[in-house]
Amino acid sequence: MRILLLGGIGEAIELARALTPLHAVSYSVAGKGRTPVLPCPVRVGGFGGAEGLAAFLRGNDFELLIDATHPYAAQISRNAAQAAQLADVPLWAYRRPAWRPEPDDDWRWVGDWADLMMVLQIFRRPFFTIGLEPLRHMAAIPPDQHWLVRCLTAVPPSCPRLTLLCATGPFPLEQELALLRHYRIDVLVAKNSGGGAVEAKLAAARQQRISVIMLQRPTLPAASREFTDIWSMVTALPPE
Predict the structure, then answer these.
(1) How many structural domains compose the chain?
(2) Does a structural domain hold residue 102?
(3) Cβ neighbour number for residue 103 with a 10 Å cutoff
């Protein structure tokens, strides 16, 4: 079977490696972060929206589209759902299970940036792990706050109340604990990405009794079939 796999998370790489010996897999990644080395063709970059993706599916005779993108890559998932309909190709989706707070956790849920800023008012030294969005709001940093922002890459800002860390995880627990102490962090701002690669920051916040402001996941479109573990998907695609 000819499969186009939209990836971008660790499980997608595992899925590509598991399916490649059994099927003709092509792996696609948007281009953020590292490009994986896989035993199948790897395509880097966008398609030009849903219509472009549909044309790519038809032009390469793909028989199945798999969405194994990040839980917050909602636009890519919406494009995938629309493209699958346009190209008349089934869409399967891997939906990574979300994290759940433990009894000692202090999680405060927010739906968007405006909600986040309201909750953030009572804190002084937040640690943002939600990508580039905080850099777009540097001018609005309150005088009594200092922001620590960690992301993959960005132009260093000229803002005395913001510190930028450009780094690629995963980060071990001891490193996360040391970072929280060094910057005197009093709240962690995170996305509920799920998975184990970046969960150490939540464990560090729990140990330090630091509150967590958690951005809720976006609503994703329905797929022909949805899976919460990759091996169930692999076994659902028997070799031809």
Answers:
(1) 2
(2) no
(3) 5
Owner of token pair 């706050």: 145
Output the average pLDDT for the chain: 93
Question: Is residue 234 within 8 Å of residue 102, measured between CB atoms?
Answer: no
Tokens of 206: 């729990």
* pLDDT tens-place string over residues 205-236: 999 999 999 999 999 999 999 999 999 999 99
* C-beta of residue 126 within 8 angstroms of C-beta of residue 185: yes
- What's the CA gap between 29 and 8, in Å, rounded? 6
**Rounded distance, CA 220 to CA 58, Å?**
24
| Backbone φ, ψ for residue 12 (5° rounding) | -65, -35
The enclosing domain of 222 has a CATH number of 3.40.50.11190
Question: Do 164 and 200 share a domain, yes or no?
Answer: yes
Task: Check if the beta carbon of residue 72 is closer than 8 Å to that of residue 192.
Answer: no
Alpha helix (H) ranges present in the chain?
A: 10-19, 49-59, 74-87, 113-120, 173-182, 200-207, 230-236
CA 148 to chain centre: 19
Q: Is 233 exposed, middle or buried (0-12, 13-18, 19+ CB in 10 A)?
A: buried
